[in-house]
Amino acid sequence: MSELEEFGLLQIPSVIHKDDCGYCFESMYNDDQMASHALNVCLTCFQSFCDTHIPVHQSVAKNDFNDKHDFLLKVSKIRKPEQKQPIEKKLKLEITEKSEDDTYESLWWLTKGAVIIADYRTQGLNSSVTTKVTEILNARSSNFQNMTQAWQLEVKPCVHVENLEVPNDNPQTVANRCTDCKLGSNLWMCLHCGNVGCGRQQVGIEGHSHALKHFESNPGHPLAVKLGSLSNSAADIYCYSCDDEVQFADTKKWIQLLLYWGIDIQSRVAQEKTLLELQVEQNMNWDFQMVDAEGHELRHLEGSKKYGYGLQNLGNSCYLNSVLQVLLNGDLSRWSLEGLGDFPGDVLYVSSNLRCQLIKMRNALKNEPEKYPHGVKPTTFKHCIGGTHEEFSSGRQQDALEFFSYFVDLLDKKVFEKSSSNPNDLMKFSLQDRIECTKCHGVKYTSQVSDYLQVLLSDSEEPQDLLANLAQNFQGDEVEFKCPTCNETTKANKSCGFRTFPEILVASCSRIKLVNWVPVKTSQEVLVPGTQAADTAILELGQFKSNGFDPDNETLLEKGEPAGFEPKANCIIQLTEMGFSENAAVRALYHSGNSSAEVAANWLFQHMDDADLNDPFIVPSAPSKAAEVNPQALENMAAMGLNPELCRKALIINQGNVSASVEWVFNNLDYCDSSIQESTVDEDDKEYGITDKDKANYRLKAVVCHKGASVHSGHYVAFIKKQVENEVKWVLYNDEKIVVADSPTNIEEIKKNGYIYFFDRS
């Protein structure tokens, strides 16, 4: 069989990784006519590699899998001259598939080894060959597939929609103005009685929330539809009881209901933006100043080893871009991915391997950033990092602090678990809680390891000092306490201090507060040492050092039987009155130390999208030093053909849950090797940081800022201190844009919108 006949018989998958090289960010797209950019699609595994890295892929395939992988389709896409057209920005509900034929001309070469078998100029090719080439060129890219799935907006019916009946009397006519204030726009019609009320006020949109007030006066009328955006292809239906967007699964019922209110959906044309369009537009408008006080554009910096490169926004990925820029490009003390070394020689599918994606990002940033003047798209990286996580695998905006914590934890568990030099250890420190019973004056000390410091701000619109708020946080308060010595519930003084100090301090200001029982983000000005780029002021944390147990002057409380977790009843009441479920309240109190409703509420605001937030909460059992697994469970998993050592690890992590363990194994197949060993050393036994309080002095290096009314909308950027022309200046990383941010307006942005602060120990 000839190579062309072999090619004609290939089974082409519907999705192919062809957006960039598996080992770098080289693509097949060219803005000129030179065809200098091309990718080789491997016709054995349907991954794509540039000319530099195709030998690397073939070496892995040959050495570890005894396969050549030398049958390739090389593709280069040349941009066609564009016709002048008016630029119109359109907002889409979801990403739609478009052909590239109108934008690019596709050049291709079919090769076997070093021999070109056919190319785009070859005459008289069999139709089976040209058909296969077309299939490969038109196959959906893996990144496009991932983005499409991530961006689909999921709106479901609710019980109120399902229970709503269409009236069977004569059709009615609805008003064209708000019945309370006569406003003629931003109108919502009650689907139960036809009352028309205005919506809430938004940026540039007038409103007085009379539609909501109608529901509050009529709790049995939760459903309303926005009249201005109603059309035959879109409908904004909101359920005030469920506090969410909903839809009618029964289209016929929906059309009949609207006809009853005198609305013919088939001929309806939207006059106003939908809720989604308003949200996307608002996110686009939440931008940071890219001009100075005189209106001049800030100086652009080209990608280089000194400044790195930009990261293009994938839609709502600015939270990821900002955190990555600080960690990979923030010049933080010794935090580096150099310890990962080169690409592993036994990984064939590099695009789904976390270690490979980290190396790919590191190499591009440190070794060849000049190759990417327009930045890179971290699509494959995001997909690999997000994995099966419900939120971080989606296209929705996320909280940057949550992502930072998730990212660090993921690297600890999946990349640096067996490494003696984990760069994340530089950010870890130990906090020590001290509890003193006010009756017997016995004391109890407990420690916990953390990788960031949460700073609660006071409820004030006045500028706040970071150090003063830290002092307030560490001051402590009086709590209820079940004293094992007194054998009764007493009052206790609880305080906190640093047991150890990190090399890199990550601190986050909690900028969430309740306004009319709705969590909103504030823009309080926070004064932080080093906010001015040339300011060398330091943050001194030595004063917050915990002294630890003093055997000469203190008596330890009796250990007794470990007391079970008992959530404070008054805090449960307060949290449920705020609208949280009892399960969520109990979970929050457990994770926030059971101290107060306010602290628990702040924890809840940061975990609103956790999939298990409202599930019944089971207090975790204390981990044992020697990790044991159920032999029968281990045997059952091994019988499925899974690696026994990996199964054992999964059972330990998932506390014996076989279903969760099986899922974990399939999501962590890159750990399948014979060297896996489960450590029996408790994480808390490992020491992090330093104990000398005189050396706990920190200089500000970078800030992740957030602008917007909620942590789940708006926009994130990173400010990083860099040497620019022999001066220390703030450099703003706004997705793919890198500019010198030395304008006073940028300093104000840092003060008002600073969210995560990164300090180096000086």
Automatic annotation (TrEMBL):
InterPro entries: Papain-like_cys_pep_sf, Peptidase_C19, Peptidase_C19_UCH, UBA, UBA-like_sf, UBA2_scUBP14-like, Ubiquitinyl_hydrolase, UBP13_Znf-UBP_var. It catalyses: Thiol-dependent hydrolysis of ester, thioester, amide, peptide and isopeptide bonds formed by the C-terminal Gly of ubiquitin (a 76-residue protein attached to proteins as an intracellular targeting signal). GO terms for biological process: protein deubiquitination; proteolysis. PROSITE patterns: UBA, USP_1, USP_2, USP_3, ZF_UBP. Residues 309-762 form the USP domain. Residues 156-265 form the UBP-type domain. The active site is at C318, H715. Keywords: Hydrolase, Metal-binding, Protease, Repeat, Thiol protease, Ubl conjugation pathway, Zinc, Zinc-finger. This is Ubiquitin carboxyl-terminal hydrolase. It comes from Lachancea thermotolerans (strain ATCC 56472 / CBS 6340 / NRRL Y-8284).
